[in-house]
Design a protein that fits this description.
This protein is an alpha/beta fold. Helices cover about 35% and strands about 15% of the residues. An eight-stranded parallel beta barrel has the order 1-2-3-4-5-6-7-8. The protein starts with a strand and ends with a helix.
């Protein structure tokens, strides 16, 4: 099973590019579900999920979409974990768990999160906090690019988030490590000029992958699908609907590759 989608869906600059000109925000997910069967939910990084909001997402997508949700920033960016953070988060996503629509919880750490005893402790706390739930871990710092990381994630049962991002010293390179029962790919684009030097944060993701680049990715995705039963693929190059364009083209490329 290869599931392809985008990181987020309710972008105003997708109107007229992907969404019809007259669409209301409340109708975006229903429209999205006509084309994609997977979605990475990012709002849960900024505010804790609620049963009401998550239930609304399921209703609007009519059960056609499977979800991955980003862990709250207090889990990944705080020095100390707030009391009850895991129970609050799990309570909010309960409709996804009970409905069998949760594919993964994405734990995305900042560049400042480097290998250390305290980092290992945080990963173990996440293991205990999300016990029994599928977790994917994204590292930004290239210090994690070592065999010990692969072994530790495998021990924890966490999926390593395979990222494509600019080839900048210090950033995590593309590594196809399969460390759990599912694979998780995340494509940020290759806009090295704007990754750090931007006026608006969205600029770093302003990149359209070429068909040749997508062909390169398709071989990796196809290979992963031969190792694990589920492969999740999300495009995060969202400005002006580039994520949608690349996700749809990647579907075409993969279909052609599989039929060969």
């Amino acid at each position: 099973m290869i599931l392809i989608g985008t990181s987020g869906f309710s972008y105003k600059d997708w109107i007229g590019v992907f969404y019809p000109e007259n669409i209301e925000q409340s109708g975006m997910l229903e429209y999205y579900s006509r084309y994609f069967s997977a979605l990475e939910v990012n709002y849960t990084y900024y505010s804790l999920p609620s049963i009401r909001t998550i239930s609304s997402l399921i209703k609007k997508s009519d059960g056609k979409v499977r979800f991955s949700v980003k862990a709250h920033q207090d889990i990944t960016h705080s020095k100390a974990l707030p009391e009850g953070i895991f129970s609050s988060f799990k309570e909010g996503i309960k409709p996804l768990v009970e409905g069998g629509l949760l594919d993964a919880i994405l734990v995305q750490f900042p560049w400042s999160f480097k290998p250390s005893s305290s980092s290992s402790q945080r990963l173990n706390e996440i293991k205990n906090g999300f016990e029994g739930l599928p977790v994917a871990v994204e590292f930004r710092n290239s210090d994690w690019d070592r065999d010990e990381t692969f072994a530790f994630l495998k021990e924890l049962g966490f999926a390593f988030c395979i990222v494509d991002e600019p080839n900048i010293k210090g950033l995590m390179p593309f590594r196809q490590w399969i460390t759990s029962a599912f694979a998780y790919f995340r494509f940020h684009g290759r806009n090295s000029t704007k990754w750090y030097n931007y006026k608006e944060s969205w600029e770093r993701y302003d990149y359209l992958y070429s068909r040749d680049e997508l062909l390169e990715f398709s071989s990796h995705i196809k290979e992963a699908s031969g190792v694990v039963p589920k492969v999740l693929v999300f495009m995060n190059n969202h400005p002006l609907g580039k994520a949608v364009e690349n996700a749809r083209e990647l579907m075409e490329v993969l279909s052609e590759e599989i039929l060969k």
